[in-house]
Design a protein that fits this description.
Membrane-bound Lytic Murein Transglycosylase D, Chain A; about 350 residues; D-Maltodextrin-Binding Protein, domain 2; two-stranded antiparallel ribbon; globular; single chain; about 20% strand; alpha/beta
Length: about 350
């Protein structure tokens, strides 16, 4: 269990220390985890996501487990909230993009740079072969995005969207009607439980017979994927409360064993509800879900636009700019969780 997560820790580095910081190549010592390393480096184990995303390929493959002698990149906390410039973003553009707010830290008009994913999209568009101008429109009613706006090609591409298991459910509306880009960023879906609840999650067998809460309307494909037919075989009880807050109320009341949402939504809800110390996440992620740009399969230039965007995203991920954007927004997020 993330023993200190969401529950305090040492004071973060002051500004002088942050400005002097340089990314480290850290050799894991006996008994260390990414959480204890975050505690030592940032003064706060909650900021383990900075280390995770700087070492995403290795840590995702090892499911967070590090061994003595492993090498990790330990990034600096960003010392600025200034957004990158967007020279290609204009009103009357060749390419029209659609997104929405209230999805921090990914897309939010009140967030620095309008969110992590927004900045990644901007940077990827600049890195594409033969860059084109583009516009970004904000529609905060997300229910209008896929149908009718993107399906009717009122806009060319939208972001950020989760990709269902299209191999398993090709008839899903998103799978049947839209192409997906490569993932802009991948988010961890965790199990949140009472700090003294005694629930462990080392393998899927530990969850059989348990009661999980996920808000109504949220995806469930990770609970019923091949090799994990928890829903279709009735191996767990899924409670779909009306909101994340309602799920955490069910947990506190003892009506469910765990709440399952992404790490950022879980941290924000725990903070807003005053549940620090009462509710903690378990170490092992339940699933890893990508956030994508999507485009209608009926768009006459759909494959061209998607190829161009994927090429730009791949170039961005090979650069320092990608890691800089991600680490900046992670630092902003955890600072907001602590101080607001």
């Amino acid at each position: 269990m993330l023993g200190l997560a969401f529950g305090g820790g040492l004071a973060p580095m002051d500004r002088a220390e942050a400005q002097a910081c340089v990314p480290d190549a850290h050799r894991v010592q006996a008994g260390e985890t990414i959480f204890t390393i975050a505690q030592e480096r940032y003064g706060d184990p909650e900021k383990w996501t900075l280390i995770y995303y700087a070492n995403e390929t290795a840590l995702k493959a090892s499911v967070f487990q590090v061994r003595e002698g492993d090498m990790l990149i330990v990034p600096c906390e960003a010392d600025t909230q200034i957004a990158d410039a967007t020279p290609l973003q204009v009103e009357n553009a060749e390419l029209k993009l659609l997104t929405g707010s209230h999805y921090a830290p990914f897309t939010d008009q009140g967030w620095p740079g309008q969110g992590m994913v927004t900045e990644l999209v901007n940077a990827a568009m600049e890195a594409t072969p033969a860059p084109v101008t583009y516009s970004v429109t904000w529609e905060n009613d997300w229910s209008k995005h896929l149908f009718p706006k993107l399906d009717a090609k009122e806009y060319d591409m939208g972001f950020p969207w989760l990709r269902p298991n299209c191999e398993q459910t090709p008839e899903n509306d998103r799978c049947a009607n839209f192409h997906f880009s490569d993932p802009l960023v991948e988010i961890l879906v965790l199990l949140f439980t009472k700090s003294e609840g005694g629930l462990t999650y080392d393998s899927d067998a530990d969850i059989l017979g348990k009661r999980l809460c996920r808000p109504a309307g949220y995806f469930t494909h990770d609970l019923d994927r091949p090799g994990r037919e928890w829903l279709s075989k009735g191996l767990i009880t899924l409670v779909q409360a009306e909101s994340p807050e309602a799920c955490f109320n069910e947990l506190i009341a003892g009506n469910v064993d765990a709440v399952t949402v992404n790490v950022f939504l879980g941290a924000t809800t725990i903070k807003d509800m005053g549940l620090r110390g009462q509710v903690v996440p378990l170490d092992k992620p339940l699933s890893v879900e990508g956030l994508h740009v999507i485009i209608s399969k009926r768009h006459w230039r759909g494959t061209t636009f998607l190829y161009r965007f994927n090429a730009g995203l791949a170039a961005l991920k090979e650069s320092d700019r990608y890691a800089s954007i991600v680490s900046k927004h992670l630092g902003i997020f955890w600072d907001k969780v602590q101080t607001n």
